[in-house]
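Quick question, first post here. What does this chain look like in 3D?
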Amino acid sequence: MPQHPDFPQPQTNDEQRTTTKRAARPSPLADLTARSRRMWEQAWTDGGVLHGLWQDIRTAPRRGADMAHWLKALLILAGLSVVVLLAEAAGSAIGHAVGDLLAAAPTVDIGTDTSSGVWTVIDNPIRIYLAQHSVGMAVSGSTLYTLWQVGGLYGLIGGFTGSTIARLVWTAWGAASAAAIWVTVPSVNRTLAVAVAVLAWGLASLFALRGLRLLPSVRIVNNPTIKP
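> Answer (accepted):
Ran it through. Tokens below.
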């Protein structure tokens, strides 16, 4: 008997199984939601990851220094972040204060030599060097010259009081001054000018580096043996 085209055609067994499987298969979103729910429940069960982390946080006040290592690292990182923020704020405040102080410093015409005597051999090349190399900088040559004077004065006075940092500043100040003189002075008088600068720095170092010994002191202690 021929089948009428308006009536639905009966499905075979294979087509019925395929249709049933397609209808029973859940959507990808529902499958993902179910898996996420199972993972969340397993993480909060006894022995789960989230349960263990919560136990570490809950027992941290009671355990004190014996708290979990990851919690120690987190607290240390948070403390370091706070210290960095405070140091940045303090550095910004100190930078503004130093900038205002340098702006209030008296203006010195570094291109004009006002020194006399032996000090001219040291001071004049420093002035010329700062005038030549401060062009285009945000800091003027006058400010750099004031900083050079303040650095030498700090190294001299602080080194006399025994400050290690001041003595390092004094040493670096002398080396930088000698290098500037070497670069600025013509080759005819260069060696003599540097020698005069080093001699003056060495004499001043008797005060700035007083009591400093390059060789370690050796103490010999004799422990006599007492025999009965």
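The mean pLDDT is 76.
The first helix runs from residue 13 to 24.
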